[in-house]
Amino acid sequence: MIKLFGFLKPYTVSIVAILILVFAQTLSELYLPTLMADIVDKGIVNGDTNYIIRIGGLMLLFALGGTVCSIVATFLSSKAAVGFGTILRSKVFSRVESFSLHEFNKIGTATLITRTTNDITQVQMVTIMILRMMISAPLMMIGGVIMALSEDKPLTLVLVVVIPILALAIGIIAKMGIPLFKLMQVKLDKVNLVLREGLTGIRVIRAFNRIENEKVRFDDANADLTNNAIKVNKIMAALMPIMMLALNFTTIAIIWFGGIRIDNGSMQVGSLMAFIQYAMQIMFSLIMVSLMFVMVPRAAASAVRINEVLDTVPEINDPKQVKIADSQRGFVEFKEVSFSYPGAEQPVLNNISFSAKPGEITAVIGGTGSGKSTLINLIPRFYDIDNGSILVDGVDIREMAQESLRAKIGLVPQNTVLFTGTITENISYGKDDATDEEVKHAAETAQAAGFVLEMKDGFDSVIAQGGTNISGGQKQRLSIARALIRRPEIYIFDDSFSALDFKTDARLRAALKKEIADATVFIIAQRVATVMDADRIIVLEEGQIAGIGTHKELISSCEVYREIVYSQLSEEELA
Amino acid sequence: MSEERREQRPIGRPGDGHGGGPMGAMGRPVEKAKNFKGTLKRLIGYLRPRRFHLITVLIFAILSTIFSIVSPKIMGKAITKLFEGLMMKMKHVPGAHIDFVYIQQIVLLLIGLYLASALFGYIQQYIMAGVAQKTVYDMRKEVYSKLARLPLKFFDSRTHGEILSRVTNDIDNIATTLQQSLTQLITSIVTLVGIVIMMLTISPMLTLLTLVTLPLYVVVTSLVASRSQKYFAAQQKTLGELNGHVEEMYTGHQIVKAFGHEDESIEKFDIINQRLNNAGWKAQFVSGIIMPLITFIGNIGYVLICVVGGIFVTNNTISIGDVQAFIQYSRQFTQPIVQTANIANVIQSTIASAERVFEILDEVEEIPDSDDAKVLKFPKGDVSFQNVKFGYKEGVTIIEDMDIDIKQGQTIAIVGPTGAGKTTLVNLLMRFYEIDGGKITIDGVDIREIERGALRSIFGMVLQDTWLFNGTIRDNIAYGRDGSTEQDIVRAAKAAHADHFIRTLPEGYNTILNEEASNISQGQKQLLTIARAILADPVILILDEATSNVDTRTEVYIQKAMITLMQGRTSFVIAHRLSTIRDAGLILVMNHGSVIEKGTHNELIAQGGFYADLYNSQFTGANLEKEAG
Fold first, then answer.
1. Range of the domain at A151
2. Which of A35, A120, A127, A204 to mutate to test the interface with B (most CBs of B within 10 A)?
3. Which of A177, A551, B103, B143 suits B617 as a labelling partner, its CA being 20 to 30 A distant?
4. pLDDT tens profile B329-370
């Protein structure tokens, strides 16, 4: 967490000001008993009512001053802490946006969302608490000791003895409690996890008749959490009584030793009373600190997660000297490309070589895990390869700017993602300055215009978050339109027709044929029918090219391809 | 890691820390329960089994508080004695001295009182830890077993986040309240009453002065709170907007990258973030000034006591020690006030939480198995639907008068476009939902007369939403059958063609699937669930689009394994791909939730209906390709 506080830098001045203000407020708070001592020692002893009233007025003034300090400090700390959260959020978000798919998937979408939102809110909350309460405790102690010294030096010894003892006691309890608090979070998460799995897998649990097993699993987690919670709370139960005891015994010690000093004539009763009140204020500020016990471990866990994101450096970066590839259009070449996911035993792709030209359709077919999606994800440089090179328009993609590389590509991914906004906005996501005509045309080609116009607001219809208000097939067509509107050099269709019914599929393919005739097209498909007429079919088998060629060539030369074909097409279709 | 994010309610509690100080939830919007009294009563019902503990806690809390309240007054006596001795000395009264014997007695008495108070306080907290945590343990357990008894209908109408939040956040909220706020409430009230009594015994006049500040607290707090709630609401709204943007951009990360929209995305984020900052600091600031204001009011009271008390002492109306005691009382006065004001909010939000938990507990359960429920010892797998009528929602019937007769070992293909309601049949077979009319029988026995567990163990299924849990691959496969050996597991994995890919993973069968199982691909997940079904060795198989995420080639392997597996088993296959179901013994064609055609492939083609259309369109597609190519 301390590491994160580096982001508070722009607020250095504010924080110094906060420290000063809080200290001033603390002093004013502590000065009240001192003034009260004057009332007792001078006013009462001399029976001087005017003096008492005058000092009373002074006290009010100090109280007011302290309050003003405190409010200004609150203002500054609110600004600083919330600003800190804002900076942090912005840093994390832009870092995540710079991640390649590899870093992104390594951490995981769901947890990245939590880290950018909840975790940062958590850290921000604690920062506020620290600026508002935690820092006042040590200042209160310092101030208290200073005031005590000014009132009566020898008696200050009592405070000097008690404070370390108390700090030690709190320290011990914290040491015992904080690991348990951390565990608490872990165990709570475990309960959450079991529960969530129980919810998402409810049909499976019931189908496999595992209700009782799951109950036991949940109960284990629940009991574990409960026992830990009881342990924590039993330890924390000691905290308050110990603090109160320390406070009270300090008071007693002050009375006793103070009494002796008063008897000696070296101290006055008012000072004694002030002393008691200093002790009280110091103790109360310590109690405040102990309340942070619960919060800090939670926020620390959040901070660790945030740091993990910030410490993850995107491994794909633009080179310093960017090459511009504008001499050719739509040429893609793989030269002996090998790629493996970090930590995997076997490479996903091994020694892949092929090249594609404009006007050609290259289809990729193969089994699950054969590396089809990985292969096409390498073209927009979502991952960096281990060996070999990938050239687009004659330039190694690692030497290009990612932006200009991707501007050449129109990707239609396997999992269709649309964004909140109108249909027009979603389609023109592919081209910022698209005209209405272009949007309409893209939608028509993608066979989306029909259903769009049937919607109440046509192209202005709003797509809900996650595209929940339209069907899977409709989403896929919009996603295709989004790629079409770019008019890119290279199209990549990653199994993009799977949710379409056969009729739409056929119509779409016929329309696409004209539209993308001069582009380089990559298609990943499951259905042989989809790839049959490709100029080049790449058959992948466990990361290797098992065959490459046209349908006709492969059917006679490639065993793997033949198997796929026979599994799908009946004899009459083959004929 | 704590990753629950779907439900973000603007409660002050869970987010900003449990027991985050006496001002933790100050000035934030508070949720209100619909039925405060009823829910409170019911919540108290949970404490009944532990009422003796609670009464002990109560007694100890009161004792502890009383002891700590009495002591300042006693301490005041010591100070008075000191002062008197001093004054006498100053007046040079012969033989004047400070009565240390008396003071010593008082000091000893105080030590006793404080020790007792601390001890009682500790015991009270100690007992309460057990009471509170065990109560919520019971509650959590009850909710979980309740969830196990609820029909799937319930889960359809709610998001997981919503349910999760009730079991964790809400119950957690209740736990904290029981642990801290309940005793705090008791001690605060006792303290308030006690202090007022003690103050009255010292000086009614000064007491009146202190009480005068009370309305000020109320006015200031409510004034500021109403303002800050507005800002908090604004903050919450912007936060929601921001979270929405983050969620969307992250789920669409690949697209954002592919289309080079990173900068736009960051730009939009920064705009919302800035607005959040604006709303956020105002909310924090306004709620943050409550505390200084309360302190200020407290200080006004303090000054009043000092001045008026001082004058009274000079008039000899009261003693100096009483003033000291009074100051201590007035200092202790503010905290319980702040606490009680706060607790009122806390209790409200707790009751609202409890209400949400009780809502789950009050849901209508599945019809329990009857006492004479049957268990089919050696099921064969004959399935028949007789005049089955069903609808998910009341009044919307999607299956009407369905009659199907399936013999042991037959393969039944269920086809139709997406959303045609193919999973409905499965839901009915497994009795996840109750039918509205007619009956479904297995081997001639009405499934409602079969024990649910026994019924479901007849089926082996691979569902559309592949479900894997956080654990090793081995455990996930073994889920299909208790007490499976390593050999069984590997054999099942091999049969499902999962063995190969499992072995390519760094840890092989010991690979732990992470929470979202994002460390293996969709197709691989599917293979694992297939392996699981194979291991379970059921009489009736249900493949719910089981192979749609597996490429056709792997599917061929799986089908080979399935064909062996399907020998002598009744199998329901749900799939998009027509080629995979052509060989089925019976095809059920579904559209808009109901079975519109049924028969064999040849019969249906001859019939020339929906199925024929669907089937031919595949040819057309293929033909188009050929013509074009």
1. 4-311
2. A204
3. A551
4. 887 777 787 777 777 777 888 888 889 889 889 988 888 888
Whether residue A369 and residue B521 make contact (CB cut-off 8 A), yes or no, is yes
Q: Is residue A537 part of a domain?
A: no
As a whole number of angstroms, the distance between CA B282 and CA B272 comes to: 16
Task: Pull the structure tokens for residue A180.
Answer: 């348990």
Q: Which of A322-331, A379-388, B178-187, B395-404 has the highest mean pLDDT?
A: A379-388
Give the mean model confidence (pLDDT) for residues A328-336: 89
CB neighbour list of residue A138: distance below 8 Å, 6 or more residues apart:
none
Which pLDDT band, with edges at 50, 70 and 90, does B617 fall under?
Answer: low
Query: CA-to-CA distance for B289 and A191, rounded, in angstroms?
Result: 38
Which has more pLDDT, A464 or B121?
A: B121
pLDDT for B464 equals 56
- Chain A residues with CB inside 8 Å of B461's CB? 204, 207
Residue A184 has pLDDT above 60, yes or no: yes
Q: Which residues pair with A410 in a beta bridge?
A: A491
Is B116 part of the contact surface with chain A (CB cutoff 8 Å)?
Answer: no
In chain B, the largest separation of any two C-alpha atoms, in whole Å, equals: 130
pLDDT above 70 covers a percentage of chain A that reads 96
pLDDT at A187: 86
Whether A375 is in a domain gets the answer no
ipTM exceeds 0.85, yes or no? no
Give the count of beta carbons closer than 10 Å to the beta carbon of residue B54. Answer: 21
Q: Tell me, what's the pLDDT at A65?
A: 94
pLDDT of res. B29:
64
Q: Cβ(A565)–Cβ(A574) under 8 Å?
A: yes
pLDDT at B8 over 70: no
Sign of dihedral through CA atoms B300, B303, B307, B313? positive
- Chain A environment of B282 (Cβ under 8 Å): 78
DSSP string, A228-274: HHHHHHHHHHHHHHHHHHHHHHHHHHHHHHHHHHHHHTSS-HHHHHH
Q: Contact A362/A535 with Cβ under 8 angstroms?
A: yes
The reported pLDDT for the residue numbered B377 is 80
Interface of B with A in 387-446 (CB under 8 A): 417-419, 430, 432
The DSSP bridge pattern shows strands B570-574 and B540-544 to be parallel
Q: B300 pairs with which residues across the strands?
A: none
What is the 8-class DSSP label of residue B364?
Answer: P
- Does residue A225 lie within any of the structural domains? yes
What domains can you pick out in chain B, each with its CATH number? 30-361 (1.20.1560.10), 383-624 (3.40.50.300)
Say if CB B442 and CB B383 are below 8 A apart.
yes
Please tell me the least confidently modeled range out of A232-236, A562-566, B357-361, B565-569.
B565-569
CA separation for the pair A192, B15 (Å, rounded): 16
Which residues of B, range 316-335, sit inside 8 Å of A by Cβ? 320, 323-324, 327-328, 331
Q: Which residues contact A377 (CB under 8 A, 6 or more apart)?
A: A101, A383
H helix or E strand, kind and range, residue B586: strand B586-591
Q: What is the CATH number of the domain that holds A244?
A: 1.20.1560.10
The verdict on a CB contact (< 8 Å) between B125 and A47 is no
Residue B37: how many CB atoms within 10 A of its CB? Answer: 9
Q: Maximum Cα–Cα distance for chain A, whole Å?
A: 122
What is the token pair recorded at A448? 């989306």
Q: Give yes or no for B605 touching A (CB within 8 A).
A: no
Domain count, chain A: 1
For an interface test with B, give the residue of A302, A368, A377 to mutate (most B CBs within 10 A).
A368
Q: What is the pTM of this model?
A: 0.74
A130/B21 Cα distance (integer angstroms): 12
| Pick from B78, B110, B469: CB nearest A201 | B469
* A106 domain-assigned: yes
